[in-house]
Fold:
Amino acid sequence: MLQAWKLFKHYDTNDDDLLSPYEFQLLLRTVLRERYPRAKDVPRELFKEAIEIQQTQISVTFEDFLTWITRNAFQECLLLTDEQRFIRLVARRFYVSVPDVEKVKRRFDSFCQANPGLLEYQEFCQLIALLLNLRDTTALPESRVKSFWRELDDTGKGSVDFTEFIPWYLGYFGGDDGSSLVNFYRRIRPTVFEDD
Structure:
């Protein structure tokens, strides 16, 4: 708290224990500079209150600054890398757990041998077999795998990155029951089951 007070007082140019909206923005930029060296990279939601204050021309007290810290200190954009935030976004969008998405990411990365971060067709074949728990790689017809690849690599560039792969994979194979193939066939051939 002492460090926050010293920082607040550094920007209190009038020494009246109040910051103008402009001074408050400078203070926030200083607080965020280590995480976001370029001001344009700071997520707008972190400046939402500062912008509202600037529009109303209300002075900011030290308590207001502490409130801002309390509200924002644990936001994902401050604590997580871009990749970690992307993984959480995917997990929320597809209603799967973060560890499940992280597991797929680790496996994806382990197969990107030729071009780190990019999966090519042969690597894709191996990855799909692993993710679907196929002991026999011929269990999934090659025509099906090629069809998957054409759909995934719809631009024909010969490789896909994780941001392309994970929505495709979860769209087909994600689900709660743990069996990727069951989830796939449930999606392409929906049936109505009645509980006994």
About this structure: Residues 82-188 form a domain with the Recoverin; domain 1 fold (CATH 1.10.238.10). Residues 98-111 form the longest helix (14 residues). The beta strands are 118-120, 159-161.
